[in-house]
Amino acid sequence: MKKTFYPKEFIEKYKKLLGEEWDEFFKTISKKEEKSIWINNKKTDIEKIKQKMLEKNIVLKKYSFSEWAFGINYKKPGDLEEYKKGEISIQEKASMLPVIILNVKKENIVLDACASPGMKTIQLSNIAKKVIALDVNTKRTKILLHNKNFFGLDNVFVKRMDVRNFKEKFDKILLDAPCSSEGLVRKKRDALKGWTQEIVLKKSKIQKELLLHCFDLLNKNGELVYSTCSFAPEENEEVILYLLEKRKNAVIVPIKLEGIKIRKNLLCENCIRLWPQDNDTQQFFIAKIKKVN
Ligand SMILES: C[S@@+](CC[C@H](N)C(=O)[O-])C[C@H]1O[C@@H](n2cnc3c(N)ncnc32)[C@H](O)[C@@H]1O
After folding, report:
1. 49 pocket-lining for ligand 1 (C-beta < 6 Å)
2. Domain limits, CATH 3.30.70.1170, in the chain
């Protein structure tokens, strides 16, 4: 098996941040994560997929946080006929949580501010009335459009644009921000190949702009979920603290998730860090923000 690449500076940074926990953290991120799927209710239903998997002797493990989310003991779910028909999507467990935490209702119109390739758009589309899915990148918007059609997301409207130029208001917004992608290291052995602290700081600057703008797109009492798959405090807690400083009507809402270990965040109250070693997942940082007046 190909060895994971770790830059020296990355190791030094996180050894310092994690202290005694470094060994367990490093051991976890160096092994592959569990395969997991989301059942796409635009094309099928849970019982049909359960039955089809049973017939193939494939075991599904239900996740506590959603009826549509399952672990799957199959090496290449992308080879399954159900995937090829768009009935299931392949999505990492922690990556499903930002949408769950946004707590979208069937009457909601949702902004998916940074949407491509659209894995979270599938989840949103399965729950909400309508989803506006934006992405600034031309190539990635094409992928998003392809996935909209492939997964039959008839209530999703795709637009290629920089969300910082978008003006409509929403009750629910997902900002799954562009980040240094550190958390992808369990999936992609060379995810950290181009990693530098300069990139982390550059992303942090963009994330602050995106978050401030997306917050301003919320209606009063509206809610926004900010997420990244980075480990860096500069891309996570620092971005949230920046918003709190700039917008006095922003409040961080406590997050409850059944069956998922969440630790108290010492840098920014109510934000959560899903460390890989806690739930055997990919890294995710998630904050739920409400506009109170
Ligand atoms: C982490 S990825 C999103 C993953 C996606 N939410 C999913 O679950 O499949 C971040 C995306 O943000 C897009 N992006 C970056 N800057 C943006 C901007 N200013 N406005 C809109 N999209 C942006 C990138 O092109 C990239 O596709």
Report:
1. no
2. 34-90
Ligand 1 atom nearest to 120, measured from its CA: 8
pLDDT digits (tens, 9 = 90+) for 5-61: 899 999 999 999 999 999 999 999 888 889 999 999 999 999 999 999 999 999 999
Q: Round to whole Å and give the CA distance between 136 and 158.
A: 11
**Centre of ligand 1 from the C-alpha of residue 1, in Å:** 30
Which overall architecture, per CATH, does domain 34-90 show?
2-Layer Sandwich (3.30)
Instruction: Give the number of other CB atoms < 10 A from CB of residue 266.
Output: 7
pLDDT (tens digit per residue) in 60-69: 999 999 999 9
CA 263/CA 274 separation, integer angstroms: 8
Domain 8-31+92-291 in CATH: superfamily? Vaccinia Virus protein VP39 (3.40.50.150)
* Residue % of the chain over a pLDDT of 70: 99
Residue extent(s) of CATH 3.40.50.150 domains in the chain: 8-31+92-291
Q: Which two tokens stand for residue 277?
A: 């070693």
Cβ(124) to ligand 1 under 6 A? no
Considering the candidates 114, 179, 214, 229, report the single residue annotated as catalytic.
229
119 lines ligand 1 (CB under 6 A): yes
Q: Is the CB of residue 255 below 6 angstroms from any atom belonging to ligand 1?
A: no
Q: What is the whole-number distance in angstroms between the Cα of residue 204 and the centre of ligand 1?
A: 14
* Cα gap 214→140, rounded to integer Å: 20
